[in-house]
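During the second year of the project, the team shifted from modelling isolated chains to modelling whole assemblies. The rationale, set out in the original proposal, was that interfaces cannot be judged from single-chain predictions alone. As a representative example for this report, we include one of the complexes processed in the last quarter. Its constituent sequences, exactly as entered into the pipeline, are reproduced here:
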Amino acid sequence: MEQTVSYTLDSTLETVDHAEEKATRIATELGFAEDEVMQISMAVREGAVNAVLHGNAYAPDKKVTLAFERTPEDLVITIRDQGKGIDLNGIPNPLAPENLLKTSGRGIFLMRSFMDVVEIRPSQTGTEIKLIKHVRGTPAGGKEGSQ
Amino acid sequence: MSMKLSTRQVDGVTIVDCSGRITLGEGSVMMRDTVRDLLAKGQKKIILNLGEVNYIDSSGIGELVSAFTTTKNQGGELKLLNLTKKVHDLLQITKLYTVFDVKEDETAAVKGFK
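Output from the structure prediction step:
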């Protein structure tokens, strides 16, 4: 993988599947363990669902930007939509007893559960979600790097 | 792999054998329609056999919750059977494992209905 790859995608359900597939492929290529690959791909899927559904609301004229950046320490994934910006205060805690049986509202929670760092930056021109997974136990230069 | 569902009857209980992915879109819709159809036909003792479900996302989790509450609200009972590790772990971290009635043995699950 190059240092950074990015994709501009339509606001469709297919984009959600494509984003997940790309995340799985890239995380695998970078040498993450199988369970970490699953976590990364799932977090990206949830981020893409947020962008397509809640951000762009399937609008055909709005795009989702998906970028993967490899740094010596991290895999950094950025997902941007062109919606009106997520209201972070309006997201209930899905683990609260009164919310356990709600049928939605777990996407951001799952992203936070699976990634080391999750940064969400809403603005009037869209929301940017940054998902970071640390490369563990290997020297600087990449997970597959050797001594 | 997309989702596949098939139903069978065992001692008055409907077992829905699920395989593939329960995710936003087709998988979630199939799950919803199947449970609604069963309830509409009066089949209110339902087991979702998730032994071949290899992936589930937040929409799929929401669909399981919906199936559970819809069945309960109509006076029925819904149990989950044969969770894979991935689904088990997801239900653990979302604190839903103790909400659902989760079984590992089909015969015991069938006998467990009131």
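The CA atoms of residues 52 and 110 of chain B lie 19 Å apart. DSSP finds four helices and five strands in chain B.
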